[in-house]
Amino acid sequence: MSRQNVPDETIRRMPMYLRALLVCPAERKIVSSGELAEHLGLNAPQVRKDLSYFGAFGTPGVGYEVGALVERIRTIMGIQQAPRVALVGAGKLGRALVFFEGFKMYGFEIAAVFDKSQRKIGRKVGKLTVEPVSAIGCLGQRDIRMAILAVPADASQKAAEALAEAGVTGILNMTFCRLRLPAQVKVATIDAAMELGILPYYMNNPG
Amino acid sequence: MSRQNVPDETIRRMPMYLRALLVCPAERKIVSSGELAEHLGLNAPQVRKDLSYFGAFGTPGVGYEVGALVERIRTIMGIQQAPRVALVGAGKLGRALVFFEGFKMYGFEIAAVFDKSQRKIGRKVGKLTVEPVSAIGCLGQRDIRMAILAVPADASQKAAEALAEAGVTGILNMTFCRLRLPAQVKVATIDAAMELGILPYYMNNPG
DNA sequence: ACCTGTGAAGAGTTTCACAGCC
DNA sequence: GGCTGTGAAACTCTTCACAGGT
Q1: Minimal Cα distance from B178: which residue of A?
Q2: What is the pLDDT of residue B1?
Q3: Which of A61, A77, A93 is the last residue of a domain?
Q4: Model-level pTM?
Q5: CA-CA-CA-CA torsion sign (A57, A59, A65, A68)
Q6: In the prediction, which pLDDT does B207 show?
Q7: Residues A58 and A134 in one domain
Q8: Exposed site from A17, A44, A136, B176, fewest CB < 10 Å?
Q9: Which of A10, A196, A202 to mutate to test the interface with B (most CBs of B within 10 A)?
């Protein structure tokens, strides 16, 4: 099954499956597509179809083995070996993200924190020490290929370019700016205000 | 044009259009679909199609009037009169969100902060004073119909139910738990770790 | 009896091409 | 010349039905 024709939406759901499996009680060895679907608010054929894009790793009449499926999904998603992530921006949001438990669950490790402000450089955030943004250039040597961008809007493009130049090819953009970067750099953007902005429409026009 | 057949994806993009228009320099009175598209990384027919679902408010040969379009979108989205939003959870993430500038841009006002912990109740967060979660019940009388949920995972379902009972019908869920709520309550979920989890796939399988 | 894997149908979304207007 | 609004085509994604395995 070629990776080329896996729907993007399927890729988006893979981390959801992973999370659902990780919160399974340890004594549960087998899970069915229906149970996964129920837990995530999807339907069973959707789950089976999604997983089948990457091969057949369930047992008909039985279900999917939890441990094996976790490993398969980790491999598919390319997060077997705990990717190290840089955080740029040690403001309120950045510091909150360092302590966010969710990243660990998928095996991500926040391995460096950068900030522009002299006031923040040298300060501790959890176990990490805030480094100057000028040190971003060395990320390649430190085996860090991903970053979370949590800087003020007007600093985002510049910081993103520094990351791209340092060899970072995956950026989680928490600013509400579109980043213009070389095509090989993948960007995911989170804009809490935009998500909030969608709700009133559906509150006023119940579907 | 009935609201019933406007694509969800179009609704998702409306706040993007709004933001793009709001960051326009004030001297710019007219904007074309091509310019909007370029600014947002979309294409021009997409922009025209999206806007046309709600009527024809551009001028052929000219473009869209910025001010008028902003008002139209605000009306369509139901955010003309600055919705008041409650924040539940005054932890690191919650406190960071209070200071997040993005909400203001769309006209949202964070009007109350709640927390369970005695240690936090009474403390100031910006101009707001943290209230006990038991006070959530009065939200209806305070004209607050939306909430942001930024509590620990194990407290999310309970807090969400309290919100729903208080008449909140739109929740931005920042926890990685699925909320089981009456159908009239609309939920948008943001899971930063999940977004981060998607990136390595595309880094390893460039599209 | 129960569950997976999958081709095919159906629904939803994007892109295109162009008629019509400024 | 330049831009909007829109039906139709193309594409993507979801749902369904069921063959086949345990």
Answers
A1: A40
A2: 43
A3: A77
A4: 0.96
A5: negative
A6: 77
A7: no
A8: A44
A9: A196
